[in-house]
Amino acid sequence: MTSSHRAGPGDDARWWATLSRDALEDEIRSNRRAERRLLVLTVLVSLAVTAVALLLHGGVS
Amino acid sequence: MNDVGRDVLVALFVALVGIGAIPVLAGLYQYLLVPVHAFRNHLRAAAPHLPRVVVIVPAWNEGAVLAASLDRLMSLQYPPDRLKVFVVDDASTDDTPDVVRAKAAQYDDRIVHLRREQGGQGKAHTLNHGIRYALSDDWMEALLIMDADVIYRPDSLRRMARHLADENVGAVTAFIREGSGRPGSVARFIGYEYVTAQAAARRAQNVMGAMACLAGGAQLHSRENLEAVGGQVDTSTLAEDTYTTFLTQLNGRRVVFEPAAVVLAEEPDTVTALWKQRVRWARGNVQITRTFSRVWFRPSRKHHLGNLDFGVIWFAIYLLPVAMGFAAVGLVGLYFVAELTATQVFQGFWWVAVTAYVYITVATLLLDRETARRSWLQGLLFPGIGALVVMSAAWFPNLWEERLPGLLGLEMSETGRMVWTLTLYSWSVLAMALAWLIKVLERIPAVRWLATPLLYVVGFGPVLCAITLDAYVKQARGATAVWDKTEKTGRVMG
Known about the structure:
Chain A: Keywords: Membrane, Transmembrane, Transmembrane helix. Chain A: The chain crosses the membrane at residues 38-60. Chain A contains two helices and no strands. Chain A has a domain at 21-57. By secondary structure, chain A is mainly alpha-helical. By secondary structure, chain B is an alpha/beta fold. Chain B folds into two domains: 3-19 and 317-477, no CATH class; 40-288, Spore Coat Polysaccharide Biosynthesis Protein SpsA, Chain A, CATH 3.90.550.10. Chain B has an eight-stranded mixed sheet, sandwiched between helices. In chain B, helix 1 packs across helix 10, helix 1 runs parallel beside helix 12 and helix 6 packs across helix 12. Chain B is elongated and about 80 Å long. Classes of the chains: A mainly alpha, B alpha/beta. Chain A binds chain B through residues 13, 16-17, 19, 21, 24-25, 27-28, 31-32, 34-36, 38-43, 45-47, 49-50, 53-54, 57, 60-61, and chain B through 34-35, 37-39, 41, 43-44, 46-48, 50, 77-79, 154-155, 158-159, 162, 203, 259-260, 347-348, 351, 354-355, 358-359, 362-363, 366-367, 395, 397.
């Protein structure tokens, strides 16, 4: 299996587990993308919720 | 008292509250660094790399948990001819030797049983026995130190190893996730705490380029690094993992946290067991802070341990119980010399706390959704129901003194108001005292059931503060420093 022949869930994990150089490089790239997605989503949602909380409160009285 | 004396007192008390806010701001700063990890992480320098790895498993009476751990190690997605496991049996008196020998036979001697006939000296000595053996020939290219009771996800080792492709990296650590099969309240709190202390804090430390600690159950060292730190781990402190982490960085090598490498661990599920474990950790941190006293706040080209932000965060955690005490003293003192100022400072202090609480809680729950599913309630109640009441009192003045009693047609007396206000102002210290009470309640069978509800009222954060304070007292008194094993049952999911 190569990176271009994957379709179903779990295919990535099986492909990376082959431990070939291509698979391990693909895993690194995929982990980098996942890290970027996770952290951008996390900061956006966290900031939004915090901003809503502050707006609802209206600042220090 | 004249006006000048009063003004000086007011300034002093306000300053005390300001010091109390430093740990909150440091925590917030650390969380603001987390998203930077999206773009500044070590994965860009990582490359396919599968060195010959020796795994050292220290074991003292680990018969109940060892078989599962060894089976998981043998099913790691890693080339079998590049992986050996040395179980260092610290003179166990249970069936540990039998379990290891059976597993060695099952896995064609890829598992090796090393027996110390004279045990009981602690984990560091046990590790060194195995490390000496591993270094005695040149087969090993990297060494993984783990605990007998942790379970490695199949992809975890190779995800750690890829960072060692960069010769500047000396060691890599993984994300230890709480994974008890049937977690109680304490274990669930620990699960949430691990996301804040590892998944979040260690990402921030990756960004800062300075790592506080390699997780004791998941530290992968290059052979070069292991030899550079002396070919052994420190035996003079209770924090051998932190000691090695610091030595690695002082030698000019990086320590990297890999969040995608996940290791499951069973954690204590009573406050008493937690207390025993964390007092050891906190006393170890006191020893580390003193041993490396020349490192703090002295920037170096070789490492980032001396950077201002890393030092502030280290000491903000280290002195957290003191800071909480200062905040309470400052607010109570202000109440008696300048009541109006006290109200304003109280609202300002807890306003910062509420902002930090909302941002940090939401971010933590999103960072690790598996833990969030198990521990969302413990995440929301991490500061304690008591602290949430204090926060609501700061955000909505008179809520508890007038509005809520008013709904019931009640009115709070002047004395009642004073007691209530002083309780709010001193809550950070009261919570630590109540945390100690939880431990006492757990020991009395008739009232043990009260311990869990009280834990939710007090919160897990104040419990950790109280434990840290106790550790400092024990350290100052020179209490015997023993390596006390945390009992595990072997019920880890996954």
